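Two quick folds needed for the group meeting slides. Do the first one here.
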Amino acid sequence: MSVLGAASDAFIASVASLYLLALEGTSIHIGLLATTEHFQKIARLFGLRIVAALGKARLMAASRISASIPVLLLIALPELDLPLAHAVLIAIGVFALREFLRQAGNTVWWPLIQDNTTGDPLGAYMARLRIRQRGAALLVPIAVGWYLGANPTAARFALPFALGIAASFLCGFWASRVSEGPLRQREEGVFGRLLYAYRLKPVWWLSVFMLVYNLLFAATYSFWVVALTDRGVSARAFVWMNSASALGQVCILSWWGRLVDRHGSRSSLSLSLCVKAALGLAWLWMPADHVWLMTWGFGIYILWGILDGGQNLARTRAMMDAVAGDHQVEGFNAIMYASALGGMIGGIGGGALLDWLARVPPVGLPFSADQAYLCVVQMALVAVYVVSRRLHGADGQPTLRSLIANRVTGESS
């Protein structure tokens, strides 16, 4: 189920920004798209209401199948002869509807993970699962990038979208076969259950962590495509850079999994977040030469993938530690709502700011306004590292500094 879901996203979601650019969308449209991707997590309220009636696996299956249906309009849209300004907004609406339906099913994603990993080494299991996911995210974009070419028209996206629909249908079939544990019934309403979860200190701090991280992530990563394509990177190369990111994850996920299982989430979060923040400085030195720019871009995406793999596994470990079985569904979804709020603020705020910066006259610096923006906001990930030290169980876990010191001492002896 996980691999088919990743394949569907690779065919559809990973090229969404390129599709908007093919319809002559701008930075503000990319920011709006990023915002809708996070806003749609409100669909989890709907999922919370119906999960008792459908069950976890059936809710996931219905979500994945229904999410594929709106994509048919994206295939037909280039043939409708609409004004491009209208077509871009309709496309954003379709991507938003697809994400809304997916998020209704994601209400039970982490509960299903918890149901199927109780008593197992979580880091190793999640590493195996994500290696398979990232395998799909690695191979599919290579084929899609080759097919789209350098400057694809909107009509060219029809085949990837159709294949994404097929993968989503198969994902729904496999979702119905996933094992699930019993669902505890609560008398409180949906909002009461969420408020109860936020009152739990472990859930609260992890919610703050996810809000701040996704605000900064949506305000930067979503706009890499704009910075790169504005400097001559083709659509094909950009899609392949997403494959490079997946390759970075696949190469080292097993190591991250062992680190998380042995030492908890603190050291992995410290390492991944601090290096991600430092990586923001790279935006000030984007090469002008096309060959060097491509090399630089692939290097950035590979390194980001390596770091993202570690951060995601550590975050998963922290979530499983923070959320107990007696408030499983509402606990995980309270965290995801905080994540969505941060993503919405970062997406629309970043898009508006970059759109404004594009109209600001140059001031004679060796780097452009968008480079300075990406550098500063990405370096602000240091704030997320500070919050990560308040997560549940972090006080009892070894720090990154102590692990490095022990490693050096052991090698010296």
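Then this one, please, same format:
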Amino acid sequence: LDELHAGLRRSYRSLVNKGLRELEIREGPAAFEGYRIVHVAAAGGTAPRPEATYHYQCQWLDTGSGLVLVGWRGGEPVAAVYLIVYKGDAYYASGPSTEPNAMHALLWASIEQLQAEGVRRFELGWQGHAQDEKGRAIEFFKAGFGGQTVPIVTYGTEWGGAA
């Protein structure tokens, strides 16, 4: 964890520490409704995913194939992170937020939780493939958590589908 913290972008350290101090962070199935609430709020009031997605995500929490952390302030959820966990690896699936900079603390708390659970690898997502400013901002945010870029070999279509 110390090595990972050393790779954290310098400007993120105070944001992580502030968020960890100020947010009430809840995790697990009991926090899932907070994830849904902040997800809808961040999308402008309309659920950005089909209802079936939330159903499956909730089931994955029950089986240990998912992890959700939700940051609360003043009794309201303001940010959440949903991770898919499988065979010692984790994948950052969703990160809605209605409050600037809250995600820094939640993502770091996720890293701490994953390490405590013995997860060996945590993938934050593709880098260098953004098509717009929002995508580039997301890539910049994710790159601030250090780690290393690992190339992924794909076959078939441009996005790695079957040939």
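Slide caption for protein two: The mean pLDDT is 89.
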